[in-house]
Amino acid sequence: MSDAPAFVVANFTIHDADEYRVYEKGFFPILKRHGGEFFTFDDSTIHLEGEEPVEGRMVFFKFPSEEAAKNWYADPDYQALSEHRRGGTKLKFLTLLHGLPPRG
Questions:
Q1: Angle formed at CA 85 by CA 84 and CA 88, multiple of 5 degrees
Q2: Residues 6+ positions from 73 with CB-CB distance below 8 Å
Q3: Residue 52: its pLDDT value, please?
Q4: Alpha-carbon distance values, 64 to 7, 14, 76 (Å)
């Protein structure tokens, strides 16, 4: 599945906006370095079904491959920057999803 894209979904609540802003400011250059593409974030998702509605912020972005996503996460610059996310939020999950390979 090396030709398939990979998606990352995160859910967290922000408890220190200043600390989280440091993370946000440094996030996009590192994401782009690994071919990542930001899709959206939402602070007020609408729960349609299931036992556990999501609370807080949902973030959704894409990488060209699983390898690119893993390289982004393992990047020492990202890991250093993510300390600001860890300090400013309570993370519920950060999950890598495998996309479908191209058809044809």
A1: 80
A2: 79, 96
A3: 86
A4: 9, 28, 20
Give a yes or no: residue 103 inside a domain: no
Whether residue 90 is contained in a domain is answered as: yes
Task: Please indicate, yes or no, if residue 58 is contained in any of the structural domains.
Answer: yes
**What's the pTM value of the predicted model, to 2 decimals?**
0.90
Residue 103 tokens, joined: 């058809």
Domain tally, the chain: 1
**Predicted local distance difference test score (pLDDT) of residue 2:** 62
Q: Which tokens belong to 23? A: 């993370």
Closest CA to 6 of 63, 48, 74: 63
Listed as ranges, residues in the chain with pLDDT below 70 are 1-2
